Amino acid sequence: MLVEQNQKKHTELWKVSDNVMELKSSIIREILKVSSKPGVINFAGGLPAPELFPIEELKEIAVQVLDKYGPDCLQYSLSRGLPALRELLAKRATERGTPSGIDNILISNGAQQAIELVARAFIAPGDYILTENPTYVGALQAFNYYQAKYTTVDIDDEGMNVDQAIEKIERFKPKLIYTISNFQNPTGITMSLKRREQLVEVARNYNIPILDDNPYGDIRFSGERLPTLKSIGGNEVIAVRTFSKTLAPGMRIGWINGPENIIAQFEKVKQCADLHTSTFCQYIVYEYVNQGLLEPHIEHIKVDYRTKRDIMLKGLQEHFPPGISWTEPEGGLFLWLELPKQLSSVDLFEEAIENKVAYVYGQPFFPDGGGLNTLRLNFATASHEQIAKGIKRLGELFTKYV
Asked: Are residues 62 and 199 both part of a single domain?
């Protein structure tokens, strides 16, 4: 025991970098520790539904990969990623309206690493990033490590307010425009076609790259599919995609689609980070997609998530008092609530946990602060019965205070 205490005192004298000292733990990860208690209905995570993971198909393909590729699938591989997978992703992008070649694609460890690689390549301390307000807290974590500053614009039913963006660009001269154009995290809002075209024009006029974080784009279960920002903007846009929401997050396979010269820079950064993404997982994903299994699986996911969204919306209409508003997303995993201004979702969180239901309070999603009266709900992971019960419990809680 004494040895352990002395070791702890010794290591407490070690000096980690100021960048690390200033970082804050992900609030969502911290909330998940609390919300994972037995009996708590959890609307807090950003997780897809685990019961939808195609375990049996992946099990078969894993064996096929080992038999077909032998030692190659367990060996070191290229920093840009498996050529066959990159070629396949480029082909799929081209077929969907974004002309792409193998040299436009770099495979990453999920979309989160892709965002971090972009931040590492572009951001120096004090550089501004233009974001929606609110925006994805995981991206803010990645940007914060490089001591970025933020200039934010409002988001409405059509997505990012581009008129505000012009004003902020002229004032702060940001290095990067970060957006989540489809089923935005945390709000679930999708950027309209008009706004997409306007944003690309602004980026082109001011020569600022758009980083379009698009993990949910394939999970549209109602409404009209829109052209991606990348298909509209071409080389003005760096697109980040992932299989985490459509296949399985534990595979950690994401990718960047960008201009060839910029992909070359990301490759150097990737080499510093981890040499390359898992060779074995890349082969499994390649075979899964190449065998035509992905699209039917996505259709299965969309049916499940639409049903769950509808159950949650029905519960909100039945149990929530007047004065609370929410979004009605056409895809993705989340919807967003605004309480009356005098209420704080942070202050009510502990009481929600006592009532065996959890959400993510909205404040951490606002780079400039604010959002105390907002919260995010994930409708993807809970069962139908849990969604109905959990929303009823939240409605009873909020009714006490509205």
From this structure: yes
CB atoms within 10 A of CB 300: 12
User: Each residue's pLDDT tens digit in the chain (402 positions)?
Assistant: 555 556 666 777 788 888 787 777 666 667 777 767 789 999 998 899 999 999 999 999 999 999 999 999 999 999 999 999 999 999 999 999 999 999 999 999 999 999 999 999 999 999 999 999 999 999 999 999 999 999 999 999 999 999 999 999 999 999 999 999 999 999 999 999 999 999 999 999 999 999 999 999 999 999 999 999 999 999 999 999 999 999 999 999 999 999 999 999 999 999 999 999 999 999 999 999 999 999 999 999 999 999 999 999 999 999 999 999 999 999 999 999 999 999 999 999 999 999 999 999 999 999 998 999 999 999 999 999 999 999 999 999 999 998
Q: For residues 193 and 178, give the distance between their C-alpha atoms in angstroms, rounded to a whole number.
A: 17
> What pTM value is reported for the model?
0.94
CA dist 71 and 76 (Å) reads 10
Choose one of 264, 292, 320: the last residue of a domain. 292
Quick check: helix, strand or coil at residue 78? Answer: coil
Give the H/E segment covering residue 59: helix 55-69
Q: Are residues 60 and 167 in the same domain?
A: yes
